[in-house]
Structure formats: structure tokens, C-alpha cells
């Protein structure tokens, strides 16, 4: 029995009997096929923000890329200290204009 043989002992698991690398490869192929089902504009958002984030919004019925991007950017701006209206990072001020 290999190191990973007990992880997927469930007889219904699609990964039963696979080596660790085979399991990783199978999961990677499944994830990529999920991504390939989306149109190019959505795939671009998945590349930028991640499958979990974009798919969660998409599954709620928001399917227009511009709307998905707006939701994600709004949340990121609200909760990320280095983004949004109140962030001073990346803004030029009198202190760094002469540099």
C-alpha cells in the first residue's frame, strides 16, 4: 500500500487506486474542463480572480462579465487595505512628487 492509498478509500471515489500524482493530474484535468466550458470573457475573469470567486457569482445568476468584474472589484476595494478610495498606496503626494 502506498503513502496515499488510504486517502480515498471510499469505494465511490473516482480517485480510488490512483497514485498521488495520478490523482493530482485527474483533479487538474477536471478543473481545466470546468474552466473551458465558459466563454473567453468569463475565462479571462477566472484567470484574473480565480474559478471559485467567478463561479460563485456566476452560479447566483450574474453571467455578464462586466457585472461579475464590477462585483469582484467592489468587494476587493472595500476589503483590501491597498486598494480603493481610501488607499494612499500608489498615489502621488507632495512627499514623493520630487523623487
Helix/strand/pairing class, anyone?
mainly alpha
Overall spatial form: elongated
Strand-residue fraction?
A: under 5%
- SS elements, strand count: 0
Mean pLDDT: 81
Largest sheet: none
What's the SSE pattern? HHHH
The parts where pLDDT drops under 50 for at least 5 residues are none
Radius of gyration: 21 Å
Distance between the termini: 63 Å
Question: How large is the count of helical segments?
Answer: 4
Helix content: 40-55%
Description of the structure:
This protein is mostly helical. 52% of the residues lie in helices and 0% in strands. The protein has helices at residues 20-36, 40-49, 51-59, 65-79.
Tag the structure with descriptive keywords:
99 residues; mainly alpha; 4 helices
What's the structural blueprint in terms of helices and strands?
Elements: H1 20-36, H2 40-49, H3 51-59, H4 65-79
Describe the structure concisely for a colleague.
The protein has helices at 20-36, 40-49, 51-59, 65-79. By secondary structure, the protein is mainly α.
Amino acid at each position: 500500500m502506498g503513502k496515499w492509498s488510504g486517502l480515498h478509500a471510499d469505494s465511490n471515489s473516482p480517485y480510488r487506486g490512483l497514485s498521488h500524482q495520478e490523482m493530482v493530474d485527474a483533479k487538474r484535468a477536471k478543473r481545466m474542463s470546468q474552466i473551458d466550458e465558459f466563454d473567453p470573457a468569463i475565462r479571462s475573469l477566472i484567470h484574473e480572480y480565480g474559478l471559485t470567486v467567478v463561479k460563485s457569482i456566476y452560479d447566483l445568476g450574474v453571467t455578464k462579465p462586466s457585472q461579475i468584474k464590477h462585483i469582484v472589484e467592489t468587494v476587493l476595494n472595500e476589503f483590501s487595505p491597498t486598494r480603493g478610495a481610501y488607499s494612499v498606496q500608489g498615489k502621488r503626494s507632495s512627499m514623493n512628487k520630487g523623487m
